[in-house]
Amino acid sequence: MGDKHQSKLWIFSNNSEGTYEGQEWDLNFTFQKHGYYFLEKEPSRTKVAEGDIVYLRVFGDSYIGKCRIAGPWKPDPDGPKKYETKTGFFPIDELIRWKRPLPQSLIIRDLSTADVRHRIIPIESADGIKIETAQRVYERLGFGGADGQIVVLEKGIEEAIKPNLASLGLKLADDSIQQQFAMGPGVGRSDLICTDRSGDLVVIELKRGMASDEAIGQVLRYIGYVRENIASPTQKVHGWIVAGDYDEHLRLSASAADIKILMVRLG
After folding, report:
1. pTM to 2 decimals?
2. What structural domains and CATH numbers belong to the chain?
């Protein structure tokens, strides 16, 4: 009997989807073509083998899923012409994109490696267990609104969210203030202003990607302006943040400021 390959574990890192639009480097290539593109001279590339397990990471942001190396390295014959260097890709299968990406900040200190710079990083089996356990816990915590309340398509997030307002108990406010309303120097421009079923005003800040707790100050400024300049004496003013994802810092800050968070699925 031949020796069975012992799967190794890796982290493959890349910039977010669309960064290298139309090129093989982009994560869209990984997801659509089931191949992960690298420089041939990428450190540790020659150590990756068929059957190895890979965790997919967006540089400085989050772990977004996992896959398996489905075959040997495939050189790209056009690589030297296109990129002036030898390139290629690993075919992948068993690709899983997590419903909710795991913020890198929540796990990075628990891993055995401190390497966050290279595109190919070897990790230990215990690291894989930590990443998957943290991701499952993070997904099940259910911060704010439930994922899937709003399904946002590929186009502008503002236009995509409008058809979903009714299901959230909202409708757009008066035409003069409902969208991209300029609140004056030093205050900013709100994304959407709505009214709820009680007739109160709701200021909504939209964040396509990961929202940080800096958004809290932004929304509080808008609430203050609307309360002083637009709301009637009997109207309350609420703040919502609608984001592709958010971290624990934002959740705690939003809770203290009584600002509601909704997470959306971005297409």
Report:
1. 0.57
2. 9-141 (3.10.590.10), 151-266 (3.40.1350.10)
